[in-house]
Amino acid sequence: MSAYIIRRLVQSALLIFVIASLVSIFIQLLPGDPAYIILGETNATPERVAAVRRELGLDRPLLIQYADWLSGVVRGDLGQSLTSKRPIGPDLAKRLPRTFELITASMTLAVLLGIPAGILAARYRNRAPDVLVSLFSVIWISTPVFVSGTLLLLVFGVKLRLLPATGYVSFADDPVEHLKRLILPATSLALLDMAVILRMTRSSLLEVLGEDYVRTARAKGLAEPSVLFRHALRNALIPVVTIVGLQAGTLLGGTVLIEFIFNWPGVSSYLIAAINQRDYPVVQAVVLVIATIFVLLNLLTDLIYAVIDPRIKYA
């Protein structure tokens, strides 16, 4: 196990390095110049643009800029924003917990509702509960996140006014208002993942229920709940863990639209603003952090396999 973990950590580090390098190259190829955005269209004379580029270090060769950025990352310094002149690290440290909170809330909701619904559908296969649950999953799998988010905002935030439509309030300032404003964006993110987890739980459990050891347990006279939860469910959850791990990573991408729709000041909104302003260091830093989190989530998912199923061994 230890050799496997070390090997995966090395592979993960190399993958993160490749992603960061590619982003550093491609972001420079985007049209537009940060100097023009900083100065504005009316003040962007050639002399002023050249002066700003020298001040920001953008007149240096791309390879030198990349080497300076990479050396800073190794030292734990993510650099400085071109537009705000603020250090990127503190801004990311402030916004990252907000995005984590949104992802954690939505994934918790998706798991708590998706797995029981999948068990219910498998337990009553081809009967009314199965049909209703399957219909729900098809609807939400076919609905994009920005559509479900907009619908929830219009219905519960604007029309019924049961919850705040947009905006963010710190938990320290007002815990109740903070949780109210978390419900709609977290639910919007959770709906698609809940449907995916539901379908995977159902199909995996139905497959396991057809195994010989399950039929043997029934032949011994064990009650159906005991067969379902003590013998079948543990093995059926192995592919579900895979889906949960992958969906947790993809939620980082889903938050881009949700944070924009609900005006949630997380990492994704920070990234969008940086792209619009051609703020290269911020884009590089955010992508590096997101890639690191995604890779570590995949590694954690693999390690959880061994806990769920002792038959799985890593060399």
From TrEMBL:
CDD domains: TM_PBP2 (cd06261). The keyword Transcription does not apply. The chain crosses the membrane at residues 12-30, 102-124, 131-158, 236-262, 282-308. Keywords: Cell membrane, Membrane, Transmembrane, Transmembrane helix, Transport. One of its GO terms (biological process) is transmembrane transport. The keyword Protein transport does not apply. One of its GO terms (cellular component) is plasma membrane. It is found in: Cell membrane. It comes from the Bacteria. Pfam families: BPD_transp_1, BPD_transp_1_N. SUPFAM superfamilies: MetI-like. It is a multi-pass membrane protein. Gene3D superfamilies: MetI-like. Residues 96-301 form the ABC transmembrane type-1 domain. Belongs to the binding-protein-dependent transport system permease family. This is ABC transporter permease. It comes from Thermalbibacter longus.
